[in-house]
Design goal:
The protein contains 2 helices and 9 strands, in the order ββαβαββββββ. It is mainly beta. It has one domain: Roll (Pnp Oxidase, Chain A). The structure holds flavin mononucleotide.
Length: 125
């Protein structure tokens, strides 16, 4: 699933967070996984971002990805994180998922993808 709510929470322990809407049908499956992959999308993913937020059975059609345990990491991202769920905090109609970072990689050469004014576009470099 696409999330705009990704945040860094802590350095020591290394923790990140994502806010998940209660209606998500993907989260009940993800939260049972041994590890969860997070990929910061790049400009080259502009054509697949809507697909990644769409029906789950077609979400990865034509998308190049790599597995790290049960974590799915999308190839060509600006950064990837392999994480494990450590806590869930109810926040209104969302759940804040607190995730421990097990492994991380950054790819500074990639141009980030930004979501602005309801559109995905490459970040200015
Ligand atoms: C730009 C964008 C940002 C999104 N951010 C979030 C988010 O932060 N949290 C969330 O739960 N869903 C977010 N969504 C919606 C999910 O990607 C997904 O469409 C939704 O969870 C329904 O799919 P599911 O039932 O498979 O979970 C976002 C969608 C888009 C297009």
């Amino acid at each position: 699933m696409i999330v705009a709510s990704f945040i860094g929470l802590s350095l020591d322990l290394p923790l990140v967070g994502v806010s998940i809407q209660d209606t998500s049908t993907t989260w009940p499956r993800l939260r049972e996984a041994g590890s969860i992959g997070i990929s910061a999308l790049a400009a080259e993913h502009a054509g697949i971002n809507r697909q990644l937020a769409g029906p789950a059975d077609k979400r990865f059609d034509g998308v190049s990805w790599t597995a790290d345990g049960t974590a799915v990491l999308i190839d060509g991202s600006t950064a990837t994180f392999t994480t494990r769920l450590v806590e869930e905090i109810t926040t209104g109609d969302h759940t804040l998922a607190v995730l421990k970072v097990l492994d991380a990689a950054s790819y500074a050469e990639q141009t980030p993808l930004v979501f602005h004014n309801s559109e995905f576009r490459p970040a200015f470099r």
